[in-house]
Amino acid sequence: MINTIVVDEKSDDFSLHIDMASQLLLESEVVIFPTETVYGIGAVYSDELAVKKIYNVKGRPSDNPLIVHVSSLDMALELISDDFDKELFLKLAEAFWPGPLSMIVKKSDLVPHFVTGGLDTVAIRMPRNRVALELIKRVGKPLAAPSANISGLPSGTRRDHLIADFNKKLQYIFTSDMLPIGLESTVLDLSAEPIMILRPGAVTKTDISRVTAFPVGIYKSKKEFVPKSPGLKYKHYSPNALVYMLPENYKFQGFELLQSDLGVKGSDVYYLDYKDSNSMAQNLYADFRLADKLGYKYVAVKPCVDDELGLAALNRLIKACENKEDL
Ligand code: TXA
Ligand code: MG
After folding, report:
1. Cβ neighbours, 10 Å, residue 193
2. Residue 231 Cβ contacting ligand 1 at under 6 Å
């Protein structure tokens, strides 16, 4: 059994622990670190043993590729194939990095297939978080990192989620105060024509379209097609409780009526009423996990979508509801 060390960003020994953790990363260990979106569970991207550890500890299917995190543009450029047109990539990196935008590009030979789920493309992002950037810099190599959660559960956004999922399974967990966004990064596929958002996030369609100077679409997964992003076909973001989405204008008139509206008379329902998009993005996953912890079988969410971040949060909520069909 491993004795997990949990280090807060404000801890006095922070630098010392970053040194030790970067050394461990170079010795094929995995480390959890905060980003501005959700926590990541990272390993050196080119280390097969370490990358396999990530898949194992998460229980993640091996065809679901990982995002490779960098701390500089030079580090990113090494990962991209020479014959890939980098103009748009550079413009978008200039506009949004460090930040919550992962860009899918044609990979260079440096990027092994075990990190891309066998694809010839790679998703790259530079996170906007001091701990993440420092760790990558110290290691001197990009870190492959999916969201820190057991596969299928909501992404980890709070310290106690990481402890619940990974305590005694790895050596280091770095934590920050509240992560500012709370939802995973926007995934933008630059490797296909037309370029397309595969996963909406805090860098929005409007933000991206402003830089590209043409309107960028959001990919809609249809059941009959092979999903563009392998991750889209897996169960995602959902608690064990069944999630119901209420209309935005739902008028709550007591639990009895809510239960009867949902058709679950007599069962306790965990009711979530968000007042704005920001708080929905920041709290959705934590609230899902809390519902499970408190033993609820049903969660009812009244969403609030007042901007494009709200649309990204709504996308996760809809997926959490879709998972009902799989049960
Ligand atoms: O905010 C985030 O993106 C967080 C933090 C830790 O950076 N990471 C994250 O990683 O959410 P993950 O693995 O949970 O989600 C990555 C998504 C998956 O749906 C995966 O299938 C997709 O990105 N993806 C990664 N590489 C891809 C590629 N080459 N082609 C298509 N989809 C890809
Ligand atoms: Mg994930």
Report:
1. 7
2. yes
